[in-house]
Each structure stands twice: as structure tokens, then as C-alpha cells.
Amino acid sequence: MSAPSLSITRRIRRTPFTDRVEANGVKAYTVYNHMQLPTVFESVEADYRHLKDHVQVWDVSCERQVELRGPDAGKLIQMLTPRDLGNMVVGQCLYTPMVDETGGMLNDPVTLKLAEDKYWVSIADSDLLFWIKGLAYGLHYEVDVDEPDVSPLAIQGPKADELAARVFGDAVRDIRFFRYKVLPFEGRDLVVARSGYSKQGGFEIYVDGTDLGEPLWDALFAAGEDLQVRAGCPNGIERIEAGLLSYGSDMTRENTPHECGLGRFCQTQEAIGCVGRNALLRVAVEGPTRQVRSLAIDGDPLPGCSGIWFVYANGKRCGRVTSCAWSPDFETNVALGMIRMTHWDDGTRVEVETPDGMRTATIRENTFI
Amino acid sequence: MSAPSLSITRRIRRTPFTDRVEANGVKAYTVYNHMQLPTVFESVEADYRHLKDHVQVWDVSCERQVELRGPDAGKLIQMLTPRDLGNMVVGQCLYTPMVDETGGMLNDPVTLKLAEDKYWVSIADSDLLFWIKGLAYGLHYEVDVDEPDVSPLAIQGPKADELAARVFGDAVRDIRFFRYKVLPFEGRDLVVARSGYSKQGGFEIYVDGTDLGEPLWDALFAAGEDLQVRAGCPNGIERIEAGLLSYGSDMTRENTPHECGLGRFCQTQEAIGCVGRNALLRVAVEGPTRQVRSLAIDGDPLPGCSGIWFVYANGKRCGRVTSCAWSPDFETNVALGMIRMTHWDDGTRVEVETPDGMRTATIRENTFI
């Protein structure tokens, strides 16, 4: 079946870069935080090859920011995540699972500390703004919570350092992983972080003001012609190879961070005050009974996973696959899924119920890349 | 430009009816509450004609429910809306604008009272679950807030009473507007409400359990063959003619209920305790300075409105159009927009900056249907 069309209304928000994305021949979108997120330019396979070999510019405006500002911003940000933020410094980005009172994942954002009383939470696909506003109101915290006009633009791929340096100067080369620097562009200060939703390396530029979007896009394309810079997007193959989870697909409110392999980001045994601490303390002691794993599914290329594919061993269910793609580099179907502890060891052989019938598969302790 | 494709992953959730929707030839979707919502079957124009003449079955599972249950459910539901719920009875559905502390719209759901300590909030396109959970946690209310496995299926069109009666019995004919009855289907109790996102009349059935989805769909199609029942969806033309607002398109967190023409649902001058009361009290006294209006835009059929079209009078901006469609019945472009008080009177002539150039238009006090 061919892919259905997406009907676009104002509710499916355009971004500061949408005109450029369209001019670069976007073929498909998904919707992410009520916003258009490109998924295909040339083809998923061609985009993948190019991402691994060259450098791409990605419109990831849909990574909306929730801004916390005010005297209680620090208290509130710690309330939101089981990760201990006590030593977080200005200039740092931290991956911060956020959970509800039962320890269920609400989002897995990156938090940026901009000042002692100012944070940005760069969110995955759920209206985390509503959760944070609700908490702040209910708890009578003295803090403003809002969505600023900030739209991230990512530079990803092995030539990302070179391209970023040509536009922002050599200072970008010294930015450490998950740190940011504030660098000037057209006389304005922009947060430039070494981060991004791929394993190919690169930066995310927090474009602070819609009016800067097209000038920055154009500057990157002008500077990168000989680097073969192209418009790209988070790649459905590469992110599965890299084990980068997608909130809503590979994890939902049903899952604890520990199930998502994010236990190392939960310092609930320290005396931090956060929502869900009691629930997660229990999980931390007992350990999860299922956890995210990579899988290699045998046989011909499978279609993408639009729902849940159950996983079996000896005829009994032992998990579910939630993302899948054919990998040209590994010449197998790469997948992510939630697997029960009885079958999550490296090398375990299982069967996956795909739209193409039962397929044998192998559980992997590690990601592909 | 042809419509782009929609890439579907698990994050864009299927519904209990998606298999049937696909079998009925859905051509396009939008994404609503992280879920697939059909937008076109035959064509928007053909679907419109059929909706006004016959009866359609709509997969509106994306109207997710937020369930409030527990001793403080009643206190919490009143905290959420400026509408006075003091006299609300079990069996009633109420349109309930919900706002943040500044009076900005967070959602415009329909609230159903199922018991003194149990409510469903049937939501528009934002994660209202997060707001309600955050408030309940912060306020230490004794209430469980969750998303149950409930997926509304709508029956809409002039023959809706006849079709619903054939499946649920003649009791449905006596259901008053915005009331519901609990009626049996295959031995299970379902909430059947006289409501829906059209002006053609009909019902919304709150399908409580995914397993009931296909049996109910099939029962409606089997019973309605001679009524020419068809798969349909909220129609982009009819809903604009009817002045039915779309959250995210025609109103956002920027707008107060008063700006959205929902002032009559705000009893902030009564002694109700709700979030945003202070902000809305001020608006109630001073009145809004802009408000939603219907417009007729002259000339040939325009494309749909994917962003904002500014409205001018004498060369000065006086509003914005946020939804537009060509109406076969009114033989004009019907539109909705937010218009400043200086130009919102019935019959005012304005100009709209469309992708097709400047067009003259007329402001209407009333909706088209």
C-alpha cells in the first residue's frame, strides 16, 4: 500500500525552515509536537548513505523548548527528573528522563541550563509544557513556564565540525559532547550544542527567533557546497542502528526509565526530591523485568513497524518490537523492542510476528553502531 | 504542489477502527492527539455532499478521554474550567473550555459526568492529560487521572437517528442534545451521546474496549446499507460553515475563551474556584478586543489555510484567517478567523492576503449554517 497523504492545516505547524525544506524536495513528513517534521528527502536509504558520508542540515524545530525562568526554576527542574541535577553547570546539556508519579515516562528531553534561574527543556513528542505548567501551578512555585520562539536546527554527519566551523568559527570544534557555547550569528547570540539525534556527530543550533531561520539555513548551504551539504532529517535506519529511542514508539507512559535502559540517569537512591521517586526506588532495587534491546531480524527487508510486533520464544510471548528498518550496512533488519528478562541476553534466538509472517531474530546486548 | 506523504510509525497511533478505515479507502490523514484521524475518503467535496444527504460513520478515536476518578474528581473538574459545573448531572455532556493561569486556551473538550466521582474529558488536540495530572499532583488531590481504552465512533448526518436506532434501539431517539444514555451492545454497556463535530446531527459512541471496535463498525454498516452509510470524517468544509472551531488552528494558548466566542461558558463572576479566574474576570469586564468571526472570501476557490492569512482594512492589519474552504452550497470561500473589534461587525468589508493574492471578503456575525 502506498503511504497516505498528510492533510496540513495550521494545527500541524510550519517551522521557520519549512519553505526551505519544501524547496529542497521533502517527500514525506511525520507530525511531532503538533509540528511538521520531515522524514524523507531523496529516499530513506539514500538519505542514510549521505548522512553517514557527508553532512546534513535538519529542521528539528519540533524539538520545542519549555522554558523555566524564575527563582524556583532550579527546584522545579529537579522535581521533574529522577536524574540528580545538583552538579549541573551553565553550559551543560543533560539527557533527563521525566516521569509521572508512578514512574511512567512522560518524555525524554534534553535539559539545558542557561542560568541559575533559567532552563530550556528540549522535548520529545508530548506536550510536556502542560505537565510542567500544571505542576508549577499546583505547587505554587515562583517560576514562569512557557514555549519560547526557539527552533533547533541540527547539523549532523562526519563533516559537521567543518561546516559548523565555517559559519560559527573554530570555537565550535572545542565544544564537548552535550555541552554548548553561545556564539554570534548575524549579531545575535545563539546556543550551539554538540548533540543530535544520530550517532554521526554534530550540533544542534537553538535558533532563537523565527526571523533568523532562513538566514542561518542559507549560510550553512552557502558554506557547505563543496562538503555536499544537503537537507536531511532524523533517519529511520540510522537511529535504530544507534539504539536511539523514539518516545511514543519505543517507550510510552507504560514504561519506567529502567525498562528503557535509562536506569543510569535515575539517582533516586540519593536524597533528591522528584516526582515518581518512590515508584522508581522500588524498580531500582528490584530491577526491571523487561528492557529495551536491539534485535537483528532475519530474512528479506521488512516494512517499517507501524504498531507492535510480538516476540515469541517456544511459542510464548516474551516481548515486542516497536521499530524496524532494513539496514544496508548490516544487511539485516535492525530493530528495537522491549524484551522480557528471561530472553534479553545477548545472542538469544527468538521469533518475531511481522506483517510478512514469523521471522527468526537475534537479541543483541549492544546497539549496532 | 501535491500533498506530502505521512510516514506512519507506532508513535502515530492506529485506532480500533484503522483496519476498517483503510478497507474503506481512506486517502488522507491528519495526526490528532498522536493518533491517525482520517480527513478524506472519496474527496473532501464528495464526502461533504454525502454527509449532508445521508449518514456517515467516523473514526474519531483521537478524541481521547481523560478519566478523573476518586473523591476529589468533582473538585478537580471545576478547577479545570471557568464554566460553572455546580448543576451538572450524571448523563450530561458539557462543552468546557479549559485555560491556564493566564486565561489562555489549553483545550476545548466535552466533559461527561459518569458519576459523582467519575468524569471523562473528551479532548481536542493537546495532551490535556499532562495538565490535569500535573495539577492533581501539585494540589495533592485524591484522584486518579488516566487515559482509558475508550475510542469514540461518531454517527453523523441526517439519517443518523435511523441508523443508530437500528443498532441501539429506539431509546437513542429520545437522547437530548449533549446528553447521553448508557445502552447495551453485544452485552456491554456503552455511552451513547447526542453530539459530534458537525451540524448535521448525530451521535458519538464511546467505545469502551478496543475489542468492541470492529463489531460495532460492522453492525452499523450492516444495518445501514439502504441508508447509504459510508465511512466519513470531520469535514473541512462543513465544520467551517458551521463555525466549529479547531483547537490549534482557530484558537491556541494565545487566546482567551472570550476571544473564541466562548464567553457564555465562563461563569468567572460566580464564586467558582478555577484556574485562570482572575485573568478571565478582567476579560469578562472589559470584553475581548478581537474575536472569532466567519468570513466569506470572494472569488475563485482558494486552497486550504495551512498557516495564517492576514486580514486588512484600509491597508492596516485587523485580523487573521486560520481556516478556509470552498463551499459548494454557498458558492463562496467560507472561512474562520480572529478579527479586531474595530472590524468585526456583520457586513464589514475587508481584504485577505491569500496565497492567491489579495481577496475581498465580508465579515459575518453568524455562521453559515
From TrEMBL, chains A, B:
InterPro entries: GcvT/YgfZ/DmdA (IPR028896), GcvT/YgfZ_C (IPR029043), GcvT_C (IPR013977), GCVT_N (IPR006222), TrmE/GcvT-like (IPR027266). Gene3D superfamilies: Probable tRNA modification gtpase trme, domain 1 (3.30.1360.120). Residues 290-368 form the Aminomethyltransferase C-terminal domain. Keywords: Methyltransferase, Transferase. GO terms for molecular function: methyltransferase activity. Substrate binds at residue 204. The keyword Nucleus does not apply. The keyword Methyltransferase applies. GO terms for biological process: methylation. Pfam families: GCV_T, GCV_T_C. Residues 18-269 form the GCVT N-terminal domain. This is Dimethylsulfoniopropionate demethylase. It comes from Denitrobaculum tricleocarpae.
